[in-house]
Design goal:
Helix content: 25-40%
Number of strands: 20
CATH topology of the largest domain: FAD/NAD(P)-binding domain
Shape: globular
Strand content: 15-25%
Largest sheet: 7 strands, mixed
C-alpha cells in the first residue's frame, strides 16, 4: 500500500517537501487555506501591472535545481535565472549612490572611490563572512540541530573548536565596525540583519554570514520574476502526483496516542502516516488538541513584519536598478522604533524593487511596477490605518527628495499590504515574516526543531522553525525534514 503524507500549507517549503516525499514514493496531498499556492512567494496583478508580492532576492538557486534533479527532471526545462551584475543600488541623503557590483573587486573599487573606507577592508570582511559560512552552514543550515548525532559530527566539532571566530558574543553591528568606519558602509552591511527580521545592534555577529550568500555565492533573478519559482515547483509537484487542495484550511492535526495520523480539513479527515506543517509554528500548535507551544517559544521575540506599497508608476526612472535601498540617516533609531516601541520611524529605510527592469511585461510600455517596502513591527494591535497614512506620506517625501522628482503624480494604481494583512493572508503569527527574531546569542540554538519528540510522524518546515526564514532556509528546512522522515518511514 502506498504511503500517505499530508502537508499543511503551500509555501515554498511545503511544496519542496511534497516534491521530496513524492520522489520517495509517498502519495502526497497539500492542504492550503488560500485560493492559490506560494504563501509569501505570491503575486499581485492590478491595472496591467504585475508584482511579486513577497520575497524578491534569489540566492542559493541550486536548492531549487536540486528538487528537479531529484525527480529526474532538467531544471532549465521549467525555469531559468540569471546572475545579477548589480546586486543592489544604495542611495544616501548626501547624494552618494553605491552600486554593489556582483564582481567583488569592482565592488571594492566602488566603495573605495565613494566612501572613506578601503577596498581591502571590504575584501577582508567578505573573507570573514565566507569563513563564517564554511563553519556554520553544515551545522546550522543543512542539518537538524536537535538530534544528538549533530553534536558528534565532524562539522560541529570543527565549529566548536572555532567558536571564538563565530562572533556569537559580539553584535552584528559591533563586528561590522571593526572593519569599516564610514557610516554609509556600516549601514549597508547592518541591513543584512533585516534578512531574517532582526536588529543588527543586538543580533549576534554570526549573522555576518549573510553577505557571503550574495557577494560570494551570487545573487540571481528568475526569468519572468520571483513567482516563476512557485509556478515551476507547482508544475513539478503535480507531475510527481502531488494533489493540491486550495481553499482548504487545516482545522485539526489528528493525534492518537503519541502519533499524528492525519489532518481534518472542511470536515474531512485525510489520514496519513506523515504530517508536515508548513505554517507558522504558533498556528500549528493551535491545531493540536492537548498540545501547547512550549513556554520558551511563547516568550521569544518575534521578527519584524513589513509595510508594502505596490505602485503602478507611469514613466520610467533609468537611474533605478532592480533592487534599490534608500537609507535612513539614523538606523539605530529606526530599529529602536521597530523592536522596543513597536512603531514606525518617521525616516525609514525604504526598499524599492522594480521587476519590470528585468521583465518588461510586468508593466505597461513606458511604465514601471514599484514594490516599495519598509520594515514594520509585529502586529500587536497598533493603529495601522494611521501608520499606513503616515508612512505613505513619509516615503513619498523621502523618495521624491532623494530622486529629485515628484513621485505621487506618477502613481497610477496602488495596493497595500501591512502586518495585519500579512497575518491574514499567510497565517504568519502577528504578521512576523520570519517567525522569531535572531536578537539573541542563542537564537541559532533556540528555534523550534523540525519535529516534535512527543508526537511521532509530525514534522515542521518553513520560516518559523529551524533553520529560519527566507527562500534558501525554507528550502533547507524541507531538505532536513526529508532526511528525518526517510529513515523513520523506510
Amino acid at each position: 500500500m502506498q504511503r500517505q503524507a499530508v502537508v499543511i500549507g503551500s509555501g515554498i517549503a511545503g511544496i519542496a517537501i511534497a516534491i521530496r516525499l513524492a520522489a520517495r514514493g509517498f502519495r502526497v496531498r497539500i492542504l492550503e487555506s488560500a485560493a492559490g499556492p506560494g504563501g509569501k512567494l505570491a503575486q499581485i496583478r492590478s491595472n496591467g501591472y504585475r508584482f511579486d508580492a513577497g520575497p524578491s532576492l534569489f540566492t542559493l538557486p541550486h536548492l531549487v535545481d536540486e528538487l528537479f534533479e531529484l525527480c529526474g527532471e532538467d531544471p532549465a526545462a521549467y525555469f531559468q535565472y540569471d546572475r545579477l551584475e548589480t546586486i543592489c543600488c544604495y542611495h544616501y541623503e548626501d547624494g552618494t549612490r553605491i552600486n554593489a557590483w556582483q564582481d567583488v573587486e569592482a565592488f571594492a573599487r566602488e566603495l573605495e572611490s565613494k566612501t572613506t573606507d578601503s577596498g581591502d577592508a571590504l575584501l577582508a570582511f567578505l573573507e570573514r563572512s565566507s569563513e563564517l559560512y564554511e563553519l556554520t552552514s553544515p551545522v546550522f543550515i543543512f542539518r537538524s540541530f536537535h538530534r544528538l548525532s549533530t553534536f558528534f559530527s565532524r562539522d560541529f566539532i570543527r565549529a566548536l573548536l572555532n567558536i571564538h571566530r563565530l562572533f556569537a558574543f559580539t553584535s552584528m553591528h559591533g563586528v561590522i565596525t571593526r572593519y569599516f568606519r564610514d557610516s554609509r558602509v556600516i549601514r549597508l552591511f547592518d541591513r543584512y540583519a533585516t534578512y531574517n527580521g532582526s536588529n543588527p545592534f543586538i543580533a549576534p555577529g554570526t549573522l555576518n554570514v549573510i553577505p557571503h550568500l550574495e557577494h560570494r555565492l551570487g545573487a540571481y533573478f528568475p526569468s519572468g520574476g520571483m513567482y516563476v519559482i512557485t509556478e515551476s515547483l507547482v508544475s513539478l509537484a503535480r507531475k510527481m502526483g502531488v494533489e493540491m487542495d486550495f481553499n482548504s484550511p487545516a482545522e485539526e492535526i489528528i493525534i492518537r496516542g503519541n502519533r499524528a495520523i492525519g489532518v481534518r480539513s472542511r470536515g474531512i479527515i485525510h489520514e496519513a502516516g506523515v504530517v508536515v506543517s508548513d505554517i507558522d509554528i504558533v498556528r500549528a500548535y493551535g491545531l493540536m488538541s492537548g498540545h501547547s507551544l512550549p513556554s520558551r517559544y511563547r516568550r521569544q521575540e518575534r521578527s519584524t513584519s513589513a509595510l508594502i506599497f505596490y505602485w503602478g508608476m507611469k514613466g520610467e526612472l533609468p537611474q533605478l536598478e532592480l533592487h534599490n535601498i534608500f537609507f535612513s540617516e539614523d538606523y539605530q533609531s529606526e530599529f529602536r522604533h521597530l523592536f522596543r516601541e513597536k512603531t514606525l520611524y518617521h525616516d525609514p529605510t525604504v526598499y524599492v524593487f522594480i521587476s519590470s527592469t528585468r521583465v518588461p511585461s510586468d508593466a505597461p510600455a513606458g511604465a514601471q511596477n514599484w514594490f516599495v517596502m519598509i520594515n514594520a513591527p509585529e502586529n500587536v494591535g497598533q493603529d495601522w490605518q494611521r501608520f499606513r497614512n503616515e508612512a505613505r506620506k513619509n516615503i513619498l517625501e523621502k523618495l521624491s527628495r532623494m530622486l529629485g522628482i515628484r513621485l505621487e503624480d506618477r502613481i497610477v494604481c496602488e495596493e497595500v499590504l501591512d502586518p495585519p494583512g500579512i497575518e491574514s493572508r499567510t497565517s504568519s503569527y502577528r504578521g512576523s515574516l520570519y517567525g522569531f527574531s535572531s536578537n539573541s546569542r542563542l537564537s541559532a540554538f533556540s528555534r523550534h526543531p523540525n519535529f516534535r519528540r512527543k508526537v511521532g510522524g509530525l514534522y515542521f518546515t518553513g520560516g518559523s522553525v529551524h533553520p529560519g526564514g527566507g527562500i534558501p532556509l525554507c528550502l533547507a528546512s524541507a531538505k532536513i525534514v526529508d532526511e528525518l522522515i526517510t529513515p523513520a518511514h523506510s
